[in-house]
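User: Is it possible to get a 3D structure for a protein together with its bound compound? The compound here is 3NM. I've pasted both below.
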Amino acid sequence: MKRIQDARLYGIVDLGYVTAENVVSMTAQLCAGGVDVLQLRAKKLGAPEIERLARQMLPVTREHGVPLVINDHLEIAAVVGSEGVHVGQDDDAVARARAVVGPECFVGKSTHSLAQAVAAQAEGADYIGFGPLYATGTKPDYVPIGLQDITEVHRLVQLPIFCIGGVNAGRLDEVISAGARRVVVVSAFLQAADVADEVRRLKERLPVG
Ligand code: 3NM
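Assistant: Yes, that's possible. Here is the predicted structure of the complex:
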């Protein structure tokens, strides 16, 4: 199983873009292309449906050695035994997640500013998301934070930092030049004509180490 500490490319199966029927196929394509970690995100589905999808994804992600992260639903992460769980900006979200998922499951937290990133590290998160860098239809209510704090967040936070929000092949060079080392890509992968190829080609351009 790949470790979150070594992950550079983070994919998300977001049910805003993928139908439930296509979740397994999309999971297989993203894993075949080479995502290092994969999240299940389904803001509009109920817990039973999300649990069912997670159970369908797990054999595929495990076959590829890709850790599966459940967004928001701590109990589902615990009951299906996913490798990770991801939480939002609530106070104590990391501590509450740990109490539910136990020591084997890593915990990531979304952050939208330098202050939130530093706080997430103090809270004991295993990794952070940092964004949205650009305006994005995947998370439309959030104000983009731009690229200017990426270097500073890497100085302040010694956790894996996944830059997120509007990242695609056309913007990758400027995101890397701004200091990003790891990225999350959602809609640009899920809407690609050839998903595995899009993942493979973007991954080749990420810095190693
Ligand atoms: N979280 P896309 S931005 C799920 O900043 C999510 O916390 C964000 O999707 C954050 O690659 C985002 O399609 C959406 O822009 C990322």
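Residues 4-203 form a domain with the TIM Barrel fold (CATH 3.20.20.70). The chain is about 40% helix and 15% strand.
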